[in-house]
Amino acid sequence: MNKHAANGQGTVLAIDAMGGDAGPEAVIDGAAYAVRQGVKARFVFFGDETKLRPLVSAARELAGSEIRHAQNAVAMTDKPMHVLRRGRDTSMWLSIAAVEAGDAQAVVSGGNTGALMAVARKQLGMIEGIDRPAVTALWPTPRGRTVVLDVGANVEADEDLLVQFAIMGEAFFRSLMKVEKPTVGLLNVGAEDLKGHELIRTAARVLREADPDMAFKGFVEGNDISKGTVDVVVTDGFTGNIALKSAEGAARLLGQWMKETLTGTLNAKLGALMMAPGLRKLKDRIDPSSNNGGVFLGVNGVVVKSHGGSDARGVASAIKMAASLAKRPFHEEVTTTVKAVMKRREELSEKLTEDMNVKAAVV
Amino acid sequence: MNKHAANGQGTVLAIDAMGGDAGPEAVIDGAAYAVRQGVKARFVFFGDETKLRPLVSAARELAGSEIRHAQNAVAMTDKPMHVLRRGRDTSMWLSIAAVEAGDAQAVVSGGNTGALMAVARKQLGMIEGIDRPAVTALWPTPRGRTVVLDVGANVEADEDLLVQFAIMGEAFFRSLMKVEKPTVGLLNVGAEDLKGHELIRTAARVLREADPDMAFKGFVEGNDISKGTVDVVVTDGFTGNIALKSAEGAARLLGQWMKETLTGTLNAKLGALMMAPGLRKLKDRIDPSSNNGGVFLGVNGVVVKSHGGSDARGVASAIKMAASLAKRPFHEEVTTTVKAVMKRREELSEKLTEDMNVKAAVV
Question: B267 at the A interface (CB within 8 A)?
Answer without folding.
Answer: yes
